[in-house]
Structure formats: C-alpha cells, structure tokens
Amino acid sequence: MAEENKGFFKGLWGKLTGAAADVAPVEADREEEQLAEPAKEPAPEPVSEPVAAPAQEPAKEQAREQVPEVPPPPPVEAPAKVGFFERLKKGLAKTHESLVGRIDTLLLGKKQIDADTLEELEEILITADIGVATTVELIRTLEGRLKRNELQDGGAIKKALQEEILARLQQYASPLDVSAARPYVIMVIGVNGVGKTTTIGKLASRYTGEGKKVLLAAGDTFRAAAAEQLEEWGRRAGVDVIRHKDGSDPSAVVFDSCKAAVARGSDVLIVDTAGRLHTKVNLMEEMKKIRRVMSRELPGAPHETLLVLDAATGQNAISQARLFKEAAGVSGVVLTKLDGTAKGGIVVAVSNEFQLT
Ligand SMILES: Nc1nc2c(ncn2[C@@H]2O[C@H](COP(=O)(O)OP(=O)(O)OP(=O)(O)O)[C@@H](O)[C@H]2O)c(=O)[nH]1
Ligand SMILES: [Mg+2]
Asked: What confidence tens digit (pLDDT) does each residue in 149-173 have?
C-alpha cells in the first residue's frame, strides 16, 4: 500500500513539478487520451491501448486515474508506439509550464523570501485549481515556517511546498484492493458526461488484464443508449454486462448483477450509474437505493464508491464532490480528462478538502 501510494503521489507530484521520471504510472493514460481524441461514443475498434497498458501499472493509480477513451481509429497500433516518455513529457509540459514554471519564475534568484512572495505564490496556487481553502492552508503553513526562519530562499520554499502538498495527499491515501472481497463491488457515480462509463471500460480492461473475472452492471437505465455504450466497453474488455431495458429500475439491474456475480464467480463487479435524473434529489435517492440493494445482496458492498470528476471543470468538481460525498458515501475519486486543459491542482483540492483520494 505504502509503495503504491508513493508511486501515485510521486507521480502526482511529478505532474505538479515536472519531475517526469516519477510520473509514468499516473500520467500514462492522460497521454494516451490526448492521442485518442475521443468520439462521443466509443468506436468499435479493438482496444489495443487500454487493454495493454493497465496491466503493467500499479493498481491504485490506475483505478483513481483514467485509462484512455477510444483509441484513434486509423492507425490502430501506431499511437501506442509513439515514445511513451515523449508523450508523457509533452503532456506534462502544460502543467509544468503553468504551475511549476510560474513558481520557478517567481522564486528564481530570490534572495529574500517575504510576505509578498507568499502572496504571489498564493495566487499561482489558486489559479492552478488547488483551490482557495487548500491554498490558504498551504500558505499559512509556509508563513509559519517563514517566521521560524525555515525558508531562506526560493529553493527552500519550493521544497517546503512540495512537502506540504505531499503530506496532504498521503494523509488520505488508500489503495483500491479488489482482492479484499469476492465479488468486489465498485460503484461508479458522478454527474453526466464526466466519464463514468469510460472509466468503467478502462477498469474492466485493467482487471481483466490482471486475470480477474469482471462483470459490469448497466445501472444507468435513464439515458438512452447508456447500456449499449457500456456493452461496447464490455465487448472490448471481453466481459459480460448485465442490463435491463431502458427506463427500468436500476436497483433491479443491480440486484440481478449481484446475483450473477456470485453465480458466475466474478472477482469484480463494476456498477455504472446514471449521471442525470429528473432532479438532483432523485439522483441522490437513486444512489442510496442502489447502495441499499447492493449491501443487502452482498454484505459490505459496495466496497468502493468511486466518484468520477472531470478535472477540466476545475472548481466545479469541488461542488460535485461535496454533493455526492454527502449523499452517496464516496470512498474514492477518479479524475478524468487530465489530458486536456485541466490543471492537476484539482487533485490536491479534492483530496484535501474531502479527505479523499
Ligand atoms: N479527453 C478525455 N475524454 C474523456 C475522458 N473520459 C471520458 N471522456 C469523454 O467524455 C465523454 C463522456 O464520457 P462517458 O464515459 O460517456 O461519461 P459518463 O459519465 O458515463 O456520461 P453519462 O453516462 O452521460 O452520465 C465521452 O465523449 C468520452 O469520450 C478522458 O479521460 N479524457
Ligand atoms: Mg455513462
């Protein structure tokens, strides 16, 4: 656990600082996504990348991060071959430029660190999506260390910031160990369009690649074609999908899925859920009902409730985290679309403010 998390945090820190070598596990997928400029619905091509890549990567990172959406259509194999680290570096450059680059510029050659320096640093952190609450907390801590004369120069302040962020992330780390139960039930929730179904497809490929028997449950019966989309991902990963017809009761799908997972000896059952219902209240009530049904069928389930957040929505992700955490017992977070214009800082914000990773 410690090792895995270290990998994750190092990777994350790498993203924030540009320490590319450490970043591989976390960043791999984002890079692939970039290549994969996804279509709205999964395309029917065989999934070469998502299936292959996950197997070599540490479990938790994979689960919490994302695997790519649809592979690019024409050259099915080619993208995977593009120098992995090259793509990695390219993708990281963005965050690096925006966050670390700016911090470096600020601190470059600074002989004297003072309150103004910290104020500027504060602004940089906030605009990197680390969020106001977390930033203020970080800056307070740095101020304290400054007063104690622990921060003499730019290098020291950078190191201190690194330590503080890392400590916050590590505090709430917990691995996604699917061998803890059988079937291990993962419920995937989040507002519409954030990437729930895509994430499930990636997880399914990943666990299948690890030799696990996976079953998917099409709990989004609300949106037309949601089950078909999940089935497409199921086909790619070579796993079965339990579905009912559109508009049926999601809890019934979940009920059947739990039964099926036991009957078929599945190792992992991943439950897709709707991102939108008539109202937010309905959505939250449905999440609760699904949980109730699950735990009645399989004591202890869901073993993990992953909240999917679109990192590109920045601070919006924070309010979603709040909403779902209160209503749906979120135990972990998946940040998607970090391949786009997202600033990785949101990871720190969500983790620190909601005690989640
Ligand atoms: N670039 C990028 N696109 C992504 C990522 N994850 C998902 N997408 C895209 O985001 C869109 C929505 O993804 P879905 O997986 O359908 O999202 P969802 O949460 O299941 O959506 P609903 O079922 O409508 O609630 C699709 O076009 C995906 O291709 C990602 O990590 N990076
Ligand atoms: Mg979906």
From this structure: 888 888 888 888 888 887 877 777 6
| CATH 1.20.120.140 is right for the domain spanning 1-175 | yes
d(CA 137, ligand 1 centre) in Å: 33
63, containing H or E segment: helix 59-64
Distance 99 CA to ligand 1 centre (A): 26
101 close to ligand 1 (CB < 6 Angstrom)? no
Residue 157's pLDDT is 85
Which residues, including other chains, have CB under 8 Å from residue 152's CB and lie 6 or more apart? 113
Q: Tell me the whole-structure pTM to 2 decimals.
A: 0.67
- Please, where in the chain does CATH 3.40.50.300 lie? 178-354
Point out the ligand nearest to the CA of residue 196. 1
Q: Terminus-to-terminus CA distance in the chain, angstroms? A: 13
Residue range(s) in the chain whose domain bears CATH number 1.20.120.140 = 1-175
Q: Is 65 in the pocket of ligand 1 (CB under 6 A)?
A: no
pLDDT digits (tens, 9 = 90+) for 12-40: 454 544 443 333 333 333 333 333 333 34
3-state secondary structure 308-323: EEEHHHCCHHHHHHHH
* Domain 178-354 is found in CATH 3.40.50.720: no
Q: Which residues of the chain have a pLDDT value below 50? A: 1-9, 11-12, 14, 16-80
